[in-house]
Amino acid sequence: RSSGLLSGPNLENSAVFDAKNLRVKLVLLGDSGVGKSCIVLRFVRGQFDPTSKVTVGASFLSQTIALQDSTTVKFEIWDTAGQERYAALAPLYYRGAAASVIVYDITSIESFHKAQYWVKELQKHGNPGIVMALVGNKADLQENRTVSAGDASEYADKNGMFFIETSAKTADNINQLFEASTLNGLTELLQRDA
Ligand code: GDP
Fold it and tell me: Which residues are the signal sequence here (predicted)?
């Protein structure tokens, strides 16, 4: 078990493979206001509720999905809960994470630059082999777009990341984000570890 990500029952070891059930710690990163909480709410509860904050402190929401071959994946989704400012705490936050979702807002170039900062952080301090997905959220606001999908996709390719644009408001690509991005990478991780 070389990566250390796939063993043990506790949260330190984030992905547990027991026959057909996988448990994955997934961390959300990105500027405040890009829609992280709304993405989680949409995925877990099927709702869009801009007024509700999902998490406080070190708690998380979880959601289990079933794959075609009857494997189930339980995501333990950690939201920063508005603590984006405390960069020094970040390594504690993403320790043990097998997957990460780095979110920006397609109408905010600053948030895209901030996303690149988080990618570098994860490359430096995250688990080796951590699966990273770059997510351009608020894709329903096309008329206010300032980050082109082409630029983001090119950046993601260069950094070995999956890229997708989502809308927590309309639900576009939210399930696809959790099914495709993380799982492709995690499947590779499992095969490498086996
Ligand atoms: P967080 O700070 O990254 O967790 O961001 P929130 O989830 O709290 O969302 C910040 C604001 O963006 C809220 O006012 C949401 O209504 C809005 N928002 C989130 N996702 C979307 C989206 O996909 N489309 C649009 N138009 N607004 C969104």
Answer: none
Which tokens go with 119?
């990618």
Q: Does the beta carbon of 168 sit less than 6 angstroms from any atom of ligand 1?
A: yes
If you write DSSP's letter for every residue of 131-164 in order, what string do you get?
A: EEEEEEE-TT-GGG--S-HHHHHHHHHHTT-EEE
For 114, the token pair is 């901030």
**How far away, in angstroms, is 105 Cα from ligand 1 center?**
9
**3-state SS, residue 72:** strand
Cβ of 114 less than 6 Å from ligand 1: no
Tell me which residue of 112, 114, 121 sits closest to 90, measured CA to CA.
Answer: 121
Q: Is 50 in the pocket of ligand 1 (CB under 6 A)?
A: yes
Question: Model confidence over 111-120: pLDDT tens digits?
Answer: 999 999 999 9
ipTM of the complex in this document: 0.99
99 contacts 177 by C-beta, under 8 angstroms = no
Which atom of ligand 1 approaches the CA of 54 most closely?
4
Q: Is the minimum distance from the CB of 67 to ligand 1 under 6 angstroms? A: no
User: Which pTM does this prediction carry?
Assistant: 0.82
